Amino acid sequence: MTTRLATSPVKHPSAALLCVQILGILLYPLMEDTSAERALFGVIGLLVLGAALYVVKRGPWLTGFGVVLALPVVVLSIWLAFDFDPRRMVLMAAFEAVFYFYAAGSLIAYMFEDDVASVDELFAAGATFTLLAWAFAYAYVVCQTLLPGSFGALVASDDPRTWMELLFLSFTTLSGVGLGDIVPLLPMARALVMIEEFTGVMYLALVVSRLVALSVTTRTARGK
């Protein structure tokens, strides 16, 4: 573990991924309306994708498969920046959902490799949470496109939900907060939300609790 981190170009790549994702959350609300803003939106998405792919390379899973999943997203993002088409948008969202689920799974496998919780693995816990939130948000995009009216809201309830609204729904569902201002209406949308709720509970119970226990064990061993 120490050797692998020392030879990496970035000491804590999981922290870099987490920072890029947080930056995306802050910038996404500013770039959803015009073609130029959508292009910038795509650039931020590619940055997140690149950061996720870099972290996946460090995990124990097959990295070639991660590249195969990422390539269609890159091509479609560039294409959409110059020629926006809702059909290509939903296709890209489907690829992104699969890729982010794969990236999250790879990070979870990476965190389960060792019996000692390193600093990078603690950052990986936060990065994995955001990857899962992104993955489900893209799944919601696909669901809403294929099944119009899947999600409702307190404001403009008949309109399709924006990307930020669906990402907000994903974060509140995964964290268990469930604020309730954006709600699933159709059966498939509710099924996806239930799966995300279950994922959030299991992530906290199995992954985060394990890292906390390993951190306490490591500190106790050092104190002896």
TrEMBL record:
<feature type="transmembrane region" description="Helical">
    <location>
        <begin position="62"/>
        <end position="82"/>
    </location>
</feature>
<feature type="transmembrane region" description="Helical">
    <location>
        <begin position="166"/>
        <end position="186"/>
    </location>
</feature>
<feature type="transmembrane region" description="Helical">
    <location>
        <begin position="132"/>
        <end position="154"/>
    </location>
</feature>
<protein>
    <submittedName>
        <fullName>Two pore domain potassium channel family protein</fullName>
    </submittedName>
</protein>
<keyword id="KW-0812">Transmembrane</keyword>
<feature type="transmembrane region" description="Helical">
    <location>
        <begin position="198"/>
        <end position="217"/>
    </location>
</feature>
<feature type="domain" description="Potassium channel">
    <location>
        <begin position="143"/>
        <end position="212"/>
    </location>
</feature>
<keyword id="KW-0472">Membrane</keyword>
<keyword id="KW-0406">Ion transport</keyword>
<feature type="transmembrane region" description="Helical">
    <location>
        <begin position="89"/>
        <end position="112"/>
    </location>
</feature>
<dbReference type="Pfam" id="PF07885">
    <property type="entry name" value="Ion_trans_2"/>
</dbReference>
<keyword id="KW-0407">Ion channel</keyword>
<keyword id="KW-1133">Transmembrane helix</keyword>
<feature type="transmembrane region" description="Helical">
    <location>
        <begin position="12"/>
        <end position="31"/>
    </location>
</feature>
<dbReference type="InterPro" id="IPR013099">
    <property type="entry name" value="K_chnl_dom"/>
</dbReference>
<keyword id="KW-0813">Transport</keyword>
<dbReference type="GO" id="GO:0034220">
    <property type="term" value="P:monoatomic ion transmembrane transport"/>
</dbReference>
<feature type="transmembrane region" description="Helical">
    <location>
        <begin position="38"/>
        <end position="56"/>
    </location>
</feature>
